[in-house]
Amino acid sequence: LRPYQTQAIRWMLDRETVRKTLPAQYLKLKCRNVEDVDFFMYLDSGEVVDEMPREIPIPPGGILADEMGMGKTVEILGLMLYNRKKKRKLLELEESEGNFFDRTSPKKEIQLILGKQKKNLITCRKCGLRQHKKCVLKHSEQEPERYICPECWRSEPLVEAGTTIIVSPVSIKMQWASEITKHINDPSFKVFIYEGVSTSGWISPTDLAKYDVVLTDYNVLKMEIHFVAENERTSRHVKRFLRPVSPLPLIRWWRVCLDEAQMVEGVHNQTTKMVKTLPAVHRWTVTGTPIEKSMDNLYGLVHFLDYAPYNDYRIWLKLSRMFYQGNPRPLLHVMSRIMWRTCKVAVLDQLGIPPQTEVIHYITMSDLQNFFYRMEHAKCATAFREKANKLAREDTSMARMNIQTLNLLMEPMRKLRQDCSIPSVLHRSDQLTTKKMLTPTELHEHLVTSNEMDCKSQLRSVVSSINGMAAIHVIRKEYDQAIKMYKSALRWAEDYQGTISVDSLLQIHALHNILEVMRMQEQDGGQIFLEEVKDYEERCAKLEWKYIETYSNIVKGVELELKPTTEKIREVTSNLSGKIDGRWWRSVLYRVDRDAAKTANLLLKLNVEIRNHDVTARQIDTVRGLDYTLTVWLDKLAQNRAQLQKAFKSIDYFVTNLKPKHLWPADVKDPIEKLVQTAFLCHLDPELPDLSVQERMKRPTCVLCNVKSVLTQYECVIFQMELVEDGPATKTKGSWQMTVQELLLRQIHAFSKRDSLDPEILEEGDLYLAYVDALKAEFKQYSKYWVEINYTAAAYDELNMCRSRMQVVTVEELEESNTRKTIQQILDCEVDETLEDFKAQKMNSEREFVRLKGTLKYLQHLGSAKEIDVCPICQYTPKDKYAVLQCGHHFCVACAPEILRIARNHGNIIACVVCRHRQRVPDIYYVTCSQQDCSEEAITVRGNFSSKIVKIVETILQLKHQEPQVKIIIFSHWDPILTMLARALDQNDITYRAKTSKFYKGVEEFKDYSKELTCMLLPLKYGSKGLNLTEATHVFLVEPILNPGEELQAVGRVHRIGQTKPTFVHRFIVQQTIEETIHRTIQNDQSGLWSSKQVTVRHLEQLFQLEDDEIVLY
């Protein structure tokens, strides 16, 4: 032992063996009106009493808070050896033999934990119930003379034990076992690893008390709380099996020791509640970081120690407030009696640990990742400010926020910090939002695709504005101007085809309306060109068919998929000779009904299956009732299927004429138009949810909804579904599981197989169940068929809607029709204003479209592998860096100063020297020329990964080159980043271990040099607590850590007692990102804000400040 460890053990022995008190802190007061009475005011609570305060007893135990890596484990082991409980024979639980046998004879009932065997039983001497020996004596060295079952142990006195129970994180539980084996040579010193009653099985308190040390972890205690009497889960049914009981609260432990005690800083979580239920003589908490986030972290430790009255949070709050207000003496007075802390800097001469060096790796993002990061930085900074304004004030301390609010506030920062390591995007759906980490190739594809969608959106806005302007000119009867506008819209469509193109509906709108305007012009005596009209008509018809054809092909495809299911039903029906009336199962029931025992057995089995399948279903009492239930169901199946086929037959005229409107036969034209129109009014109108119930009830019911109603009724017969009312509509509730009736058929069929009935009956049963399966398959196709038909009707409605243009409506007309003004209607007084709005929208959209097109060219430029063209100004090929303009042309770094000087003199506008395209200076993008390192020492990293991942792998390869057996621990906040890093290590033949279900085994393999493992990948929240990994000499911190306590824990895994080599901490910081801001802020923290956990919302917002992107190419 080192001197400081000896001092720590002496202090702990003093805490356990000497009863001490804390002098009461009070102020003596006098009252003028009652001079003969002394009053006393408690300084900590402010309470005034008329009795002199007594000294406060200090509970035996305390907080061992030596800094990480200083041997706290050895100090606790020393305490256990120096202060063992005096051994005495465990008291036998006494109960007179007479009383035992005088009671009522025990019931012949067996309560089992496992299995159903009735051999090797043992009887409880209190309740008389019997259990299997292998279940309850699993950990007993010999069978007890007087056995007590787990349930009866609850009413017994606590077992006085000399055992120390050590609770630690699961990651270091086995490390405790190895440390005990390493440092304690006493063969009689016994250790038991407790995995929980649900895993290890029952161990009696007397057996558990025979061990010197019991090791368990916080995860076990979290689950164990459900096996304590006051926290047991209740059951609606009578108990048939012995309920597991936790033995831990049935023992008065000599010592309870919590390692990494910051895990129980919250007093209301399940783990803390379970820890508090453990009776103990001495209570100890061991932690290298007793204050991780705020002073309230100490309260969890004080609460566990039962340090009254300071375990009352109201009193503790007053102490902490005085501390924050600049008066630390009361808190120090309380804590100095129960806490011992030694810092490394104070005993460096005793430790003998080699020095630790910090290495900072500054990383430059690729142009692509930097482009993505800048966009995300702006979004996340805005999102953070919005959340901060809603959730907290600027001066609100992070330490004072509840965890839910803090998580919401930190989400934008968390996203941005992850993007520094690996770019990620969110995929949102109706039910789920998932995050995907992107490789550089995936990132490029994502950015190009997103930009193309944005370009298409702006192009849509431009053409929509032009069409709107044309409509205004039609209203003004300025037909020539309207035609020019529509032709302009069509030119945009001709200019942009391919990925970025004008929507076909916008083109149809322009073509349809330009033809109408030409006819209006002709009626007014104007001249039109027939060839031009014919051309527009053909183009319009082609676009309409192209739009409908997609839907038509899908409907025909589903129709083809439906036919085999219908044919399957015909095939099975023919094999049954057309007899689908249930003859086979009636034969089975007839034979069963003649045997009362078989009947009872079958009905019991069926009712059990019914209850397990649907607790609300009625039970079957008789065979005749069973026959009736199945017969009614089969009749409903046949009836509903026939109605469904008839319903779909009623819309054949629509399905068989999915073609352009001008090709519809005359006899179906009106019915199809009526179908589409009523479908819109019935359920396709997007404004329908905004209407009142009365207004919706006035709408007609379309033929498609009638078909849907029949489909829904059939669904409720063939599947476990039911109809529910939802306002004016009717919906289904349930799932596509088998019905109770189908379950009964399958159980009868299984019963007939077990009873070995005639093969003919069994074969018929197989065919009948195949018939039911075929019906369900057919229904699913019909359901899909209806959905696609409905989509097609909506497509025809879209065509009708896209042809309509803006119209002028009067207030009188609106009042007379009792309707609201639609988006296509304007008042006469709004005509001029609307035209100006369209012009402004067109101008803004054009400007944004040009900017986005320039961005797209830049992104395509980054993805191209072709050689760079010479600079058009100096005619030299760029070597280091060059600028890309919106038009796609570029200029080199040498020409930049003169170009920027000219731009500053022209309002920060630059003109391309090739095409004269004008743009703003901030909209210039930059490309860094890739330079290959051809030196012999150059290291090539295989795989397609982000800049940071490449740098980390490159650093590992360099270290391996210098020291082949080097061992490295890599910490990150986030598992997805470690997963991506593991993939990179695999591709570069670097061996590693990561956090798995068998974590301790992975740690042991990492420590073993014969396994030749290089890296250990650990999540910061899991792997930075308590692990002893002195075999490693390098710690990689993938991202800056906001919590200094967590960082100290991580670094402490290697820089600790037992380390014989110099150690290195590697920080990977991406330049010009929030990472660099965080690192610089924490390093330059002269005020101690970050180390004292007094960071506010304002300080966090300052982290989003990014250096201004000046164009500095020289």
From TrEMBL:
InterPro entries the UniProt entry points to: ATP-helicase/E3_Ub-Ligase, Helicase_ATP-bd, Helicase_C-like, P-loop_NTPase, SHPRH_helical_1st, SNF2-like_sf, SNF2/RAD54-like_C, SNF2_N
Residues in Helicase C-terminal domain copies: 951-1104
UniProt entry tagged with the keyword Zinc: yes
Superkingdom, taxonomy of origin: Eukaryota
Domain RING-type, first and last residues per copy: 871-916
GO cellular component: nucleus
SUPFAM superfamilies listed in its UniProt record: FYVE/PHD zinc finger, P-loop containing nucleoside triphosphate hydrolases, RING/U-box
A GO term for molecular function: hydrolase activity
Keywords for this protein: Hydrolase, Metal-binding, Zinc, Zinc-finger
GO biological process, one term: protein polyubiquitination
Nucleus is among the record's keywords: no
Pfam families assigned to the protein according to its UniProt record, in alphabetical order: Helicase_C, SHPRH_helical-1st, SNF2-rel_dom, zf-C3HC4
PROSITE patterns in the record: HELICASE_CTER, ZF_RING_1, ZF_RING_2
Record-given protein name: AAEL001410-PA
Species, as recorded: Aedes aegypti (Yellowfever mosquito)
Organism phylogeny: Eukaryota, Metazoa, Ecdysozoa, Arthropoda, Hexapoda
